[in-house]
Amino acid sequence: MFNNWLKTENPEPYNSWGNGSAMRVSPVAWVGDSLEEVQKLARISAEVTHNHPEGIKGHWLLLMQSI
């Protein structure tokens, strides 16, 4: 699924609820200046590919352990 998404002309989120967003969220905890900013950046990071609510929940739990 990801490989097909990567090759599209205009990649859009594809409602994935996998763990890809969790794999890239930890640096967000270091970049944000406040909890609110971290939350916003984490959502932006996740929604690139994983806009399903379950995918966002997974990365959010990992992020909260990083703070």
How would you describe this structure to a colleague?
This protein has five helices and no strands. It has one domain (2-66). Helix 4 (35-47) crosses helix 5 (53-66). The chain has helices spanning 2-6, 20-24, 28-31, 35-47, 53-66. The chain has 67 residues and is mainly α.
Can you describe this structure in just a few lines?
With 67 residues, this protein is an all-alpha fold. Helices cover 61% and strands 0% of the residues.
Structural class: mainly alpha
The whole-number mean of residue pLDDT values reads: 76
State the distance separating the first and last CA atoms.
31 Å
Apparent shape = elongated
Count of DSSP H/I helices? 5
Question: What is the number of independent domains?
Answer: 1
Helix content: 55-70%
Number of strands: 0
**Largest sheet, strands/sense/barrel:** none
Query: Using only CA atoms, what is the Rg?
Result: 12 Å
Which regions contain 5 or more consecutive residues with pLDDT less than 50?
A: none
Give the strand content. Answer: under 5%
Order of helices and strands: HHHHH
Secondary-structure topology with pairs:
Layout: H1 2-6, H2 20-24, H3 28-31, H4 35-47, H5 53-66
Keywords:
67 residues, mainly alpha, elongated
